[in-house]
Each structure stands twice: as structure tokens, then as C-alpha cells.
Amino acid sequence: RHRSEQHNIGGPAKLPASVLAQAQKEMVNYKNTGVSVMELSHRSSDFTKILTGGGTGQFSALPLNLLALKPSMSADYVVTGSWSAKAAQEAAKYGKVNLVLPKTKKYTDIPDPSTWTLNPEASYLYYCANETIHGVEFQHIPEFCGVPLIADMSSNILTRDIDVSKFGAIFAGAQKNIGCAGVTLVIIREDLIGKALPICPIIFEFQVQVGNNSLYNTPPTYSIYIMGLVFEWILEQGGVAKMEEWAIKKSSAVYDVIDCSNGFYVCPLDKGCRSRMNIPFRIGSAQGDEALEKKFIQEAENAKLISLKGHRSVGGIRVSLYNAVTVDETLVLVQFMKDFMARYR
Ligand code: PMP
């Protein structure tokens, strides 16, 4: 199949076509150096400005580096989906974890911050800005006086304008909006560095990474190179503002079909926290008609719309509208959803 014939609207790692074309060109001979980009030394100047780490690794790295910021050795976790739940579970190995919200498995809303049970002595307050599986996205930055705020932005970084100065740390795996798998971006406030627990593995120690320009060990050079190309691509398109404009346009088009379907498509999420990136929905009823959903996925594939199967833990359908998914591709999906509804309702 030719690439231009497939619309990858659900997969985790879509890249802009122009980025892939450039990577293909530079695969064998990078910028006329006579060597492949994968053969370049990571000590060359091109690779010295980016922090790396590991995706799920940050679930461990953050508590290991930050729990000791306060004598409480306790951290507040806002659990709004399975990724923040995993992060909280991991942190509990190293210190105390206070769950700010009542326990639930439903993950369809964000309770009002006035109801959160926050601990003013917490070392940090952790949340996931966009829950990739459940589709819960914060539309505002939660704040709690004096307690450093930590955010997992793995699935929505560079898709909306944010005030970085409000955070103690932000981390994001690259493979959704800013590159391919293998590299994790960590932004951390300098004054939070240097209090790692003695058991912290050296590769996770922020102070060691910062002191070595993120080059304490051999970094994933090719993934960093691709991330650089994606950053350039984002700037050429008009920056984060443009990504945000597209994200609003794309997600509104899909939510409009759902909301005007009279219950044929059902998105379980509270409207105040609906994600612009990941839209999970069921077909036929709130519980989902599995036979109809199977038909949807099959017919979508026939129409070149791929990767729409929902995550196995929630079932149904999931649309993912990462930066590299175009408005036009989204409109192909929207038309398909309308046609499918007309055929089967
Ligand atoms: N956080 C979020 C919000 C994610 O979506 C993911 C992966 N999908 C992770 C963390 C884990 O990242 P990785 O798979 O790179 O370990």
C-alpha cells in the first residue's frame, strides 16, 4: 500500500509525511557529513541540548528524585485514568502516596478541585494532563499553593499553549506528538534537583543527567534526531498556536458527530474534561454493541482509516488526533462516521 492511502487516526506514533521524507533522505548521509544520522557520535553538538530518560521510567524517576523534597516523604496524586493510576502505584513503592480523589474505575470526569483532599505538606502534586486511554484531559492547570506541580504530558505536549512557569516538572514520552518512541522529554525546575533518594538508580538521577548535559549514558540518537525534525516541522506550520487551532478543529468535528447522533455514538466523558487528543466512544449504546463496533472497525479499514480499535481495557473505538493527523484526514473520518450511522442506525 502507498502511505498516502492510509489515514492513521488511532495509532500512537504518527509522524508528518514531510518529516519521514527528510529522515529517509538523511538516513544514509546526514547533512553531507558522509555518515548516517545513526552513526553520528552523540557527543557531536547536535545532540547536547535534549534531556532523555525513559517513558514509564518517569513514574519511578519522579518519586525517586522528588519525594525527599519535604520531610513528609509523601506525594499527592490526582488519579483520573489508568496512566496516573500506574504512576501512583509506582510512587507508593518509595514513599507515601495520598490519593486526592475518591477511588474509582470509571474515569469519566474530573471532580471539582474544591473537593480534592490535598496535603499542604506534600513533596509534590502529580497529575496526568491527558489520559490517553480514558480521554480525560485537563482544560486548566490545577494549582496548589507552594506544592510543586508535576505533569505527565505524554499525549498532549505541544498541542496547546501552557504556562511552563507554573510547573515543578513536566515530562512526556515523545512518540505521540513530538517524535518517535525511545526518547522522553523532562523539563524540571532547577531548585527541585539534588534531593534524590540514595536508592535512586544513577540513570534516573536528574542531577547526574543535568550535570552531564543529558549525556550520562548513550542516548537514543535517532529518536532525538526525529524529535528535532518534528520541532522544526511544528515551527514551520506556525508553532503550538497552530497545533492548538488544529486540535480544536479536529476534535470538535468528531465530538459534533457524536453529540448529534442521538445516542448512536456514545462518549462517556463529562464535557468539561473531554480530550482533544484521544476520543473514546461506544457504538449502539453506552455499553457498546460489540458486533456493530467490529463492523465499524472493519469498514473503516476498508475506507483506509486504520488503528481505531479502542484500548483493550475500555473496548469500543478510540480516535487519536495527534499533531501529525491532518484536519483533512479527520474530515474523512467524520464523513465515514456519518455514513456508517446512516447505514446502521
Ligand atoms: N503516560 C501517558 C499519558 C501515556 O499515554 C503513556 C503511553 N501511552 C505513558 C505514560 C507511558 O509511556 P511509555 O509507553 O513511553 O513508557
What does this structure look like?
- By secondary structure, this protein is an alpha/beta fold.
- The protein is 30% helix and 14% strand.
- The protein has eight helices and 13 strands.
- The strands form four sheets. A six-stranded mixed sheet has the order 3-2-4-7-8-9, with helices on one face. A three-stranded antiparallel sheet has the order 10-11-13. A two-stranded parallel sheet has the order 1-12.
- Helix 1 packs across helix 5 and helix 7 packs across helix 8 (327-344).
- The two termini are 32 Å apart.
- The relative contact order is 0.16.
- The structure holds 4'-deoxy-4'-aminopyridoxal-5'-phosphate (PMP).
What's the SSE blueprint?
Elements: E1 7-8, H1 17-26, H2 57-66, E2 74-78, H3 82-91, E3 96-99, E4 125-128, E5 130-131, E6 136-137, E7 149-152, E8 169-173, E9 184-188, H4 206-211, H5 221-237, H6 239-259, E10 265-266, E11 278-283, H7 290-302, E12 305-306, E13 317-320, H8 327-344
Parallel strand pairs: 1-12, 2-3, 2-4, 4-7, 7-8
Antiparallel strand pairs: 5-6, 8-9, 10-11, 11-13
The structure holds 4'-deoxy-4'-aminopyridoxal-5'-phosphate.
